[in-house]
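Cross-check.
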Amino acid sequence: MQKPPIQLLTCGNQSLRTLHALRATREAVGQDDANSGLPFTGKANLRWAVADQLQERSGVAFNPETQVVITCGEGDAMVDVLFVATDPGDV
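Predicted model, tokenized:
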């Protein structure tokens, strides 16, 4: 049995062309909630869904406008934590 080819899913992989992803990206470019300057807290509907699920699982209510942040991964999350936990001039 022949193994299927490995598809690299790294950022900037020009050989990977998925038309649905390209269409969705083009559509999102003009949407204010999909584009912003820092800090980017994530799309509102996703923050609300996360807050709802957290409350269902834990019984604790979180405010999705002020207590839920969606990040692209652990690196972005760590930067967000540093912004929250430090003040200008801290060393």
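Residues 44-58 form the longest helix (15 residues). The mean pLDDT is 82. Passed to J.P. for a second look.
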